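Quick one, tokens below. Sequence please?
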């Protein structure tokens, strides 16, 4: 027979990281080892993701140099460490590490090919729903998942409207990427969804303006908005309480 007091303590521990940002495991050494382990896991998953991309999407994975591979692994390592520091030992952590791993790969592909493949974006959305669904059950916060799904729909519709009505270069790949970003942001809160979506659009506009300046006033036909959207979303996830 389970002890109600112990069960309540476990539930409180699982819910604490989202209520208190930058929660870490007890003990400095334990915390460092935990963060290092999550970071190494993220870097290994990055290398595995590149292998899978090369095999399933050879047109997108064939031009990855050793330097680029190390850069993406280092970026994923850093993001995974920061997410471990931000979320602590929480059931949500695996989902957000997945976002970091897939996000770095999607940013690399968009910068290289001006493309956000459906075979990566849609599985990110589906896996995010599954992992965050498990996390919401474990933490007893089903409302977080419902808010995340609503966030995915809201951000998708907003970016679709912007893509259809503006001439800022948003493509359908960017529109579809807005759905998983809305899920991950909305799960954390409405303010995360608002600031993450707004900052992503602003950051994309700044990147477009910089490209225009770089090309001496000539706007390129295709502007990779994906990296700006992902960077903005992850920044809000890491920094906003």
């Amino acid at each position: 027979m389970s002890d109600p007091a112990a069960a309540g303590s476990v539930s409180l521990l699982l819910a604490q990281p989202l209520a208190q940002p930058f929660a870490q495991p007890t003990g400095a050494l334990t915390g460092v080892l935990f963060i290092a382990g999550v970071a190494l896991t993220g870097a290994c998953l990055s290398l595995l993701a590149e292998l899978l991309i090369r095999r399933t999407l050879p047109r997108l994975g064939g031009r990855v140099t050793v330097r680029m591979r190390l850069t993406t692994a280092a970026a994923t390592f850093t993001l995974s460490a920061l997410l471990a520091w931000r979320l602590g030992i929480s059931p949500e952590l695996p989902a957000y590490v997945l976002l970091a791993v897939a996000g770095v790969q999607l940013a690399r592909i968009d910068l290289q090919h001006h493309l956000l493949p459906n075979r990566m974006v849609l599985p990110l959305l589906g896996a995010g729903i599954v992992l965050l669904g498990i996390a919401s059950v474990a933490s007893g916060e089903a409302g977080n998942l419902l808010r995340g799904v609503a966030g995915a729909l809201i951000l998708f519709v907003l970016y679709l409207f912007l893509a259809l009505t503006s001439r800022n270069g948003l493509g359908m790949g960017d529109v579809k990427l807005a759905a998983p970003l809305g899920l991950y942001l909305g799960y954390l809160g409405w303010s995360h969804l608002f600031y993450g979506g707004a900052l992503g659009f602003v950051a994309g506009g700044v990147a477009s303006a910089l490209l225009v300046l770089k090309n001496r006033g000539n706007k390129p036909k295709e502007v990779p908005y994906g990296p700006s959207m992902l960077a903005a979303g992850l920044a809000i996830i890491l920094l906003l309480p």
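Residues 1-17 have pLDDT under 50 and may be disordered. The radius of gyration is 19 Å.
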